[in-house]
Amino acid sequence: MTDETSLVPVGPFSNADRDAVYRAITTRRDVRSQFLPDPIAPDIFDRLLMAAHHAPSVGFMQPWNFLVITDPGVRGQIKAAFTGANEEAAAQFPDARRALYSDIKLEGITEAPINLCITCDRDRGGPVVLGRTHNRDTDLYSTVCAVQNLWLAARAEGIGVGWVSIFNDADLRAILKLPDHVVPVAYLCIGHVAELHAEPELQARGWATRTDINDLIFADTWGNAP
Ligand SMILES: Cc1cc2c(cc1C)N(C[C@H](O)[C@H](O)[C@H](O)COP(=O)(O)O)c1[nH]c(=O)[nH]c(=O)c1N2
């Protein structure tokens, strides 16, 4: 058997490059309120989509599409869908948390210059996809990898991204005219930012705190401390 793939030598990044990668990871934030109105230059937006498109995907399925939403009419419908779902969401929290929940801004749909829905086409690649034979949801996981690639690239570009998931699926599908085999994985608000929260806003607002990583690591079997 011949190996027709070509390999290139690799080593670790320079310290500066490596630090930049970790800086993007640790200083990336979910953005809801800091969007500036400035448009995003096409070359920057192209790089963000390129980053998303270079994500790993099961069987190299590349199940994503990028729905770029700029039309104010569509945005208005999306915002109304969010508002309805967010009222339903608030009602699900206990009385003690509801006031704080309602006080936290959870989207920047109308303020962000670009809204982007990253979808997953569950039929792409046909009925049998390498790596997906025993776990059908791996196409959804692949799409989430694309979202994260974009989110980190955006941090490096000084662009803020906010993920909005408080929607009834049916609303999003109807507004965006999605076919049945396409899943709206992530609805993202994207725009320039001058500032980012130093820590997750939900932590700063007292909603949740970052878990100690040592409490999350098990050895060999579930629950077994290393
Ligand atoms: C799948 C998914 C869905 C959502 C989110 C994230 C992810 C991964 N997040 C953002 C989330 O609140 C945020 O990532 C955490 O609070 C951690 O903060 P940083 O991302 O580090 O700023 C989010 N934020 C928000 O304001 N409205 C939302 O509907 C959602 N939905």
Give a verbal description of the structure.
The chain has seven helices and four strands, in the order H-H-E-H-H-E-H-E-H-E-H. The protein is an alpha+beta fold and 226 residues long. The radius of gyration is 20 Å and the shape is globular. The longest helix has 21 residues, at 72-92. Helix 1 packs across helix 5 (138-157) and helix 2 runs antiparallel to helix 5 (138-157). It has a single domain (30-215), classed as NADH Oxidase, CATH 3.40.109.10. The chain has helices at 15-27, 42-53, 72-92, 95-103, 138-157, 169-176, 201-204, and strands at residues 64-69, 114-121, 159-164, 182-192. It has a four-stranded antiparallel beta sheet with strand order 1-2-4-3, with helices on both faces. Bound molecules: ligand FNR. The ligand Cc1cc2c(cc1C)N(C[C@H](O)[C@H](O)[C@H](O)COP(=O)(O)O)c1[nH]c(=O)[nH]c(=O)c1N2 binds at residues 29-30, 32, 106-107, 162-166, 200-202.
